[in-house]
Amino acid sequence: MPARKAAVAAMQALEHIGMPEARLNIAQAILYICECPKSDSVTRAAEAAFFDAEHCRIQVHIHPQSPDIARGVSHREEEDTGAAMEEELDALDLDRDVELYSQTTKSLSGFRRIVEAIRERKRSGAFRYYDTICRQVANRMGHLREFARTHEVIVFVCGAKSSNGKALYEACREVNPRSYLSVNQDAIDPAWVEGARTIGICGATSTPSWLMNKVKDKIEEICTR
């Protein structure tokens, strides 16, 4: 158990139980925290990151729908080809040390194109790039687009905050405008499937099969009314 959890538990015990009963909870937390191994690695890493942002490196982040922010960090939506980023690269001083990061749900081809574009423009300084793209998402894109093409309607099921779900849903919508995003069976609009002969149901990597089945049952219920 992290030391902060022990401290929070002791604080909550004091708030809800009061003194003197909470003395044992507080004493237990003090002993636990005292015996925990100590490290300043988080502090040192944070200080190094802030120093790099202020003085040393340009960090280029490939991330959708984020405005450009200060301190030489560029965020911009990347198309599958990566072309949307290339114009911004010309505005950056790439002869400084450069680090490239990508959102986990971006395309592999787009990421590789940006890597090559930076290499072509650099004359000096270090260049490091971090391939953090989720293969479960990237490898599904082609199959998912084909699936969306072969059905009149697509119902994509995922959580409202699922980043990989939104990326996969957008891949469906690119090839099939009758693609709809639903968080569960209760969010389905009967108008979505009206007149459709073929309906495809798919979901994010983390969408549970029981939820997909509930969505299927709901759609079948709507279609048989």
Order of helices and strands: HHHEEHEHEHHEHEEH
Helix content: 40-55%
Low-confidence stretches: 63-84
Total DSSP helices? 9
**Strand order within the widest sheet?**
2-1-3-4
Mean pLDDT: 77
Largest sheet: 4 strands, parallel
Question: What is the tally of beta strands?
Answer: 7
Straight-line N-to-C gap: 53 Å
Shape: flat
Q: Cα-atom Rg, whole angstroms? A: 25 Å
* Class from secondary-structure proportions: alpha/beta
Strand content: 5-15%
Secondary structure elements and pairings:
Elements: H1 3-16, H2 23-35, H3 41-56, E1 57-62, E2 74-76, H4 83-89, E3 97-102, H5 108-121, E4 127-130, H6 135-138, H7 141-149, E5 153-157, H8 163-175, E6 179-182, E7 199-203, H9 209-223
Parallel strand pairs: 1-2, 1-3, 3-4, 5-6, 5-7
Helix pairs in contact: 1-2, 4-5, 7-8
Write structural notes for this entry:
- The protein is α/β, with parallel strands linked by helices and 225 residues long.
- Helix content is 47%, strand content 15%.
- The protein is built from nine helices and seven strands; from the N terminus they run αααββαβαβααβαββα.
- The strands form two sheets. The protein has a four-stranded parallel β-sheet with strand order 2-1-3-4. Strands 6-5-7 form a three-stranded parallel β-sheet, sandwiched between helices.
